[in-house]
């Protein structure tokens, strides 16, 4: 077990999570960690450097698909990733939810500061959303989920973290909301889904 995973396992135990799954980073970048508590049954169906695909069952209810995502940060990888992701969605036959850092803003309103939004990247993401029949669950508590931690004229803030849901998922959890929490050490704010 990697040194980083040993640290994460200690943190998981300290915070009373009962289950875990990890995707190792490549070099110093990336890596994913998924933790869950008692009463939540998670089956890992597929994983990659960019996502952990799961079946989630809460307290014995009918399972639904949830994908925890870290979208590629490099432009050269984004188009292929969203095309592949669309194929995964085509094969989904149950309620579906995607949570995480998509690493794309959908339009200029989701960015403040820095260079303008690249329309081609936004189009890849929006095409995926449309073809997949997903909608964004609104997140309360702020517009932007990431910042470059700078101030004044070099400050940049973006809405990179999203919660995407299928219509079936929305009907099963009509009171679900997303919440943006304050960050402590990261340049991303944590997002929480409350059912």
From TrEMBL:
InterPro entries: Endo/exonu/phosph_ase_sf, Endo/exonuclease/phosphatase. Gene3D superfamilies: Endonuclease/exonuclease/phosphatase. It comes from Hibiscus sabdariffa. SUPFAM superfamilies: DNase I-like. Pfam families: Exo_endo_phos. This is Endonuclease/exonuclease/phosphatase domain-containing protein. Residues 21-188 form the Endonuclease/exonuclease/phosphatase domain.
């Amino acid at each position: 077990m990697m040194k980083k995973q040993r640290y994460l396992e200690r943190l998981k135990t300290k915070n009373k999570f009962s289950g875990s799954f990890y995707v190792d980073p490549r070099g110093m970048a990336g890596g994913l960690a998924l933790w869950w508590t008692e009463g939540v049954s998670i089956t890992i169906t597929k994983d990659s450097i960019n996502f952990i695909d799961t079946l989630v069952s809460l307290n014995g209810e009918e399972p639904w698909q949830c994908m925890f995502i870290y979208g590629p940060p490099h432009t050269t990888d984004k188009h292929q990733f969203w095309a592949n992701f669309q194929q995964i969605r085509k094969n989904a036959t149950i309620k579906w939810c995607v949570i995480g850092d998509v690493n794309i803003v959908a339009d200029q309103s989701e960015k403040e500061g820095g260079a303008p939004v690249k329309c081609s990247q936004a189009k890849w993401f929006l095409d995926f959303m449309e073809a997949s029949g997903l909608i964004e669950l609104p997140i309360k508590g702020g517009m932007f989920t990431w910042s470059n931690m700078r101030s004044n004229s070099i400050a940049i803030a973006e809405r990179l973290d999203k919660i995407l849901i299928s219509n079936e998922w929305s009907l099963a959890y009509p009171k679900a909301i997303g919440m943006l929490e304050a960050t402590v050490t990261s340049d991303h704010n944590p997002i929480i889904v409350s059912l």
